[in-house]
Amino acid sequence: MTDENQAKAFEARQAGTLPGELGITWDAVAKGEARGRFTARPGHMAPNGFLHAASVIALVDTACGFGCIASLPDGATNFTTIELKANYLATAKAGEVVTCTARLAHGGRTTQVWDAQAVNETTGTTMALFRCTQMILYPR
Q1: DSSP designation for 45
Q2: Cβ contacts of residue 28 below 8 Å, gap of 6+?
Q3: pLDDT digits (tens, 9 = 90+) for 33-90
Q4: What range does the domain containing 117 cover?
Q5: Are 51 and 40 in contact (CB under 8 A)?
Q6: Beta strand 125-137 with 25-30: parallel, antiparallel or unpaired?
Q7: Is the entire prediction scored with pTM above 0.70?
Q8: CA–CA dist 45, 79 (Å, integer)
Q9: Which of 11, 37, 44, 72 could bridge 99 with an S-S bond, Cβ 3.0-4.6 Å?
Q10: What φ, ψ does residue 43 adopt, rounded to 5°?
């Protein structure tokens, strides 16, 4: 399956869940990497008029999660996030495009560590740096 086809499969999989409701689309989901985006709209904003931090977390955490699924070691069936951290550097306004690139930093048998960067594509500004640790799950 090509990266683009795999991205479309993940996009279909998120229907009816938070990433789907936020309108996140995927450019690529492959072993070791995922790239996605959304266009900020009023539903992404906090009451103060700025982009809600949870909207950014939804994008970067989903990118890392989809990348993790595409990168599971042999015999593994799923994962769960055990730690995440984000540093926010900038925001976006309604109508601006927020993109994300997530990359595998460590791919072990029991854990994966992912780094992601959210960028305001409209302004070219880095918005957030994100890191998470995923625990790899195996059948019992």
Answers
A1: B
A2: 3, 4, 6, 7, 34, 35
A3: 999 999 999 999 999 999 999 999 999 999 999 999 999 999 999 999 999 999 999 9
A4: 3-137
A5: yes
A6: unpaired
A7: yes
A8: 29
A9: 37
A10: -70, -15
Stated length of the chain:
140
Q: Supply 58's token pair.
A: 């939804």
The single-letter DSSP state of residue 51 is B
Token pair of 46 as six digits: 């906090």
DSSP reduced 3-state for 103: strand
Place of tokens 């479309």: 8
How many Cβ atoms sit within 10 Å of the Cβ of residue 9? 14
- What is the number of structural domains in the chain? 1
Secondary structure (3-state) at 2: coil
**87: CATH:** 3.10.129.10
